[in-house]
Design goal:
With 542 residues, this protein is of the alpha/beta class. It has 3 domains: 271 residues, no CATH class; 72 residues; 119 residues, no CATH class. 61% of the residues lie in helices and 6% in strands. It contains 26 helices and 7 strands. The longest helix has 27 residues. The relative contact order is 0.11.
Length: 542
Amino acid sequence: MLPFQLSPFPTEHRWPLVLLLLLLLAVCVLAPGIQSPTGLTGKDEYALGLRTPLEMMEKDVWLVPELNGQPRLKKPPFLYWLGRASYETFGVSLVSARGIGTLFGALLVVAAAGIGRRLLGDRRAALCGALLVLTSLGLNSEARRFMLDVPTAALSALAFWGLLRWYQDGRWVGMLQAALCLAAGFLVKGPIVALVCGGGVLACLGSGLWSWRELLRRWPACLGGSTLFLLLALPWFVYVRLHYPDAAAAEFQEELEARQLFSLSPESLLGLVQIGLPWSLAALALLPRAWRGGPAARTLALWLAATFIPFLFIRSFDRYLVGSLLSMGLLAGWCWAGAQPLPVWGRRLGTLFAGLFVLIFVLMAWWFRCGGWLPTAAALLWLLWEGWRGASLLRGAAAAALVWMTFYAFLFPAFGINVLPPQVAALAAERPVLMFDGPQPALLPMALGRALGHSSQLSPAFLEQPGLLVFARLEDVPKLTGQADELGRDLREAGRYRVLSSRGSGIRFAREGSGKAEWQAAFAARSLAPLESTVVYFEVQR
């Protein structure tokens, strides 16, 4: 007996309509909160992602994006192309930028359903799995930001779906889909796009679902798809290599060093559990059952291993593991559609971990009188009830979706992280701006619709601009004034303000160097003021 009935819907001819409705549902779940300037962000988004398309517009460059006056070669350009196109079409706003990530997140959910149907042969299992992917913590956090990871995972998943269509139906359109999506993903984040798709192919071969002999028999299609991929993906990299050889080599070397290849990273397992909450522990507990469950279920188990194990040997962030959500969600969907309950301990423990994460923020918002906590608290009670009982997948997924929607739309923005005082935006509206080091104010470029300058090293040319405003965190002021003195320029403080500011990851907002004493003072005063950073802005004396 299924936890809810989908039969006879969706029938085969209605399946495209179901996928369209699923896409719209995913957008509705993932979009709330993306418009908020005090919502979830991080340094990679506000210092790099959001500003790069702005500078592309200002300098009217397309082929090679620029940032801070230099070619942006650390990452390929496709997402920045989309960002500039969105800015120019819909205007410069957080919605026009983050909406791209949200749309790719929705496409990832649709790809999960398409892959599930092809692998498991069961539309109900596919939809169950897609709902669990949609309501996971990792997708709900990362699809609300203008970042590279969700688009890369989505394009790789769409490519794998295309290969499944091609292998099962023998139609060239599936191979075309795979080649186009892999090329687009390669132009978003490089070779890592092969992980989800390539891991899926290896899993199909390892489980016996596919055969090497059949692939070799179809070598003309494989050759054609590979050729199309190379023709689309490589020209930009060749161009960059020819025109910026030294800079490209330096960026490549820096990226290799940052990843720390073959450095054991067992903390990635905790990251995998975290991004899949509240379903990850139940899905991981299903691995032994899946291994004994036939070729399709074994494929999902191998696919999860293929998309996760590489991150045990490199330095990574939790968001890199978004691609593993597909196999985890489909494993749980396979279990539900087979009329088998999810492992009780995994379901309950995963729900409790997710609930604890949210409860900490609910209690902080209540204690510090931030507001926005009541809708999330109500949704959390529902999730804990459904997660503990486990009677209905549909109600459990709906409760999880409501928790994340209220968390990112109401609760998290209520803390006022990165809030920009109106007088600061008004002062900087018509003047050149340099954000020193930090950069702070984090979202001033989006408020003004200009990339603004950002550097940790003052230059004489920049200081010559009439009316220049220089922003710096209080802890960076000695470094700033020291550099100004070396250049023979005086800086006059024009004002300062205090703010909770994002540092690195989205939830690290306390002032750098804050410790136990600052947190104790904040709780004693029921005020976040002891944790705030001070941003100082200067004018250049002439």
